[in-house]
Amino acid sequence: MNDLLFAFLISLGINALFFIAAASLKTDKVTDLSYSLSFIVIAAAVLIRSSSYDTGRLVVAGLVLLWGIRLASYLLSRIIKTKVDHRFDGIRESFFKFARFWLLQAITAWVVSLPVILYISGDFPRALGPFFVAFAIIALAALAFETVADAQKSAFHSKPAERRFIRSGLWKYSRHPNYFGEALFWWALFATTVPALYGSFADILTVLLAAVGPMFITFLLLFVSGIPLLEKAANKKLGQDPEYVAYKMATSIFVPWPPKKT
To answer: For the residues of 92-159, what is the DSSP string, one character each?
Structure first.
């Protein structure tokens, strides 16, 4: 079986199982857990299927594992506190609408994982040069960056605050620093695979296919399910707040940057 098809079936199977549990129990607590787990299991399954455990493969799979554990623990603790995910209001009650969400989640996990799948499953040399090491370090730094951003926001919301929105720490330099860290992680992970992928039989075509992964997650964050939804909610809640308007005008929406003087 083709490795890409194998990985897709893995993602589809995981999300189908979690969909059955979520629909049966009418719960939102397993949704984000299944998203993180999809990436981890895809990487692990392709690694086992390859029967090769060289350093390059282990590093790439290990980065995905760290990313998945970090995201799963953060989102699971958040949903346990909030108990309900209002994104699914009006959706979880409909079998087909709810099933469509899980199908899209399975596809998303597979597409974003493309560089991981192609790198781990490919039969080509993996010389771990300075390029690989540099971008593996950047991926770790990006993971740490989004972890700090999420921790700062959680701490802000865990106690009464004079201000209604966070604008300290990393949030002083970006309105969505966690999403920037997320996108940077996947771009850096993709970059670690480029030297090996470019030396494979398909060369540039393989690299372009792998690049679909980070491009897709960046597109989702910037234009679909990430920033647009949060910006819309913030504008509805805080659009008349002069402090928020000033913060919005002065602060980069995505890439961290020193705030403008207003």
So the answer is: TTSHHHHHHHHHHHHHHHHHHTHHHHHHHH--S-----HHHHHHHHHHHHHHHHHHHHHHHHHHHHTS
Integer CA distances (angstroms), 108 to 40, 111, 220, in order: 14, 5, 10
Q: Would you kindly state where each structural domain of the chain is located, as residue ranges?
A: 1-123
Characterise 203 by phi-psi region: left (phi > 0), alpha (psi -120 to 50), beta (else).
Answer: left
Length of the chain: 262
For residues 204 and 20, give the distance between their C-alpha atoms in angstroms, rounded to a whole number: 40
Structure tokens, 236: 């509805």
pTM over 0.70: yes
Burial of 23 (0-12, 13-18, 19+ CB in 10 A): middle
Q: Which residues, given as ranges, of the chain have pLDDT below 50?
A: none
Distance (Å, whole) CA 47 – CA 64 = 12
Looking at residue 81, its pLDDT comes to: 74
| Cβ neighbours around 162 below 10 Å, total | 4
Q: What per-residue confidence (pLDDT) applies to 78?
A: 77
Identify the CA nearest to 23 among candidates 91, 109, 72, 110. 91
Residue with tokens 């997650």: 217
